[in-house]
Predict the 3D structure of the following.
Amino acid sequence: MALKEEVLNQIAGTLDVSAGELKEDQKLYDSVGVDSTEMVELTVSLSKHFGVAFESNEITKNSTPLEITAVIEKKKQG
Amino acid sequence: MNDRVAITGLGVVSPCGLKKETFWANLKRGESFVDNIDRFDSAGYPSHIAGQVHELDHYSHLSSRLVKKIDVFSHMALVASEQALKDSNIDLDKVDKDRVGVFTGNALGGWLFAETELRDLYLEGKEGVSPYMASAWFPAAPQGQITIYYGFKGYSKTVVSDRASSALAIWYGAKTVSEGKNDFVLAGGMEAPITPYSLLCANSSGNLSKNNLNYKKAYRPYDLSRDGFVLGEGAGITVLEKESSARKRGSDIYGFIKGIGFTSDGYHYARYSPNPDSLEQAIKGCLKDAGWDKGEVDYICLDGEATVMGDYLETLALKNVFGKNLDKIALSAPKSMFGNLLGAQTALDLTATLLSMKHSIVLPTINYENKDPYCGLDYTPNKAVEKEINKALIIARGRGGINIVLAVEGDSPLF
């Protein structure tokens, strides 16, 4: 599975939204109304799933799934 | 004109029904809804029986996205709130939500959520703890969730006062209506104490019945062989508004909140005072606040703790206050059928009392088989009886010596 799809699935699963509600180039706040606590949950979930550590505010509710994918890809490449 | 505080909507989540019609139909039958606790391994607990809510998900319209963030006591509160609002026929698109408040009472908070996260903390470290823990556990969580869900922004509060929590919440909510601080109030209580840790704490109080083998008969207030109460879980929510508002809307009115008596024993952090003076003062204070003579009371919904001393002291207080008038006052503890919901106790007692008024039926105290000479009143044993009820008292006592008595009157042309 491509990284982008894997990120979308992980976001949808963590936030308990359908994959169809997410738009890869739309801010999470605008697409699914993510709140700050959900972002904490999502950050931990993505960190555990992809084995990466995020800096504070590296991904936020104003991030798009594409932007999040890019951050994860860069971290995985070291 | 005295613009009374009317109750115009009822919502209930209980071991004997998840809507008011089922709740009432089952209570009238005079049967026990107490069972063995089987949702976790409770066999090692001295008392492992309770009145449990079944099929909550079936009655819930909440998204899974919300449900995973809240404890079950908030979930039950939201289900009951939806019912109460629908029952009241309030048009939420037309109300001023800045003037709708929420007043809730519960004793313990959301322990199922909390216990799970504490376990994960010790097993996985801080990373294992849900970010929703802080907002899921605390006792005011249901108040918060109800206001968020509906967008209510009026004066709201949560009361924690053991088994008297929802009694006070309902009273304070009614006061904000009568004083013009809110137009509508959702008031009631919720409690979800059937969790490994909560059950442990309740057992350590020594006040739970250990009659596990004969669990249908375990909760037997005022009976000679009583050995404590049985836990219950659930939620009760009422909608409160001024009588003038209810009449203008053409709303059905279940009754009115008329008065309160409120005292403290000032004796011990866990035991009642051996002298029922403070409870007597609470009863008298309530009658005075309601403007009632003691001969006017038709029914008293009792605290019914089913401990040896608790029932004796409550009975003694009634005898001392009412004397011969007790011959004409119906008494009962319907909670004997579904358990003691701790902080939500009065929310369900009020619902049961209002439905009793509506149907002119006194609900029974079940499992009353052996007369205790130190109690010995007519507690409406085992079967419901017909009686017109216009003026009722509801008694709630909390650990540490909290005594609350509420006065409720029916919607009758006489009043």
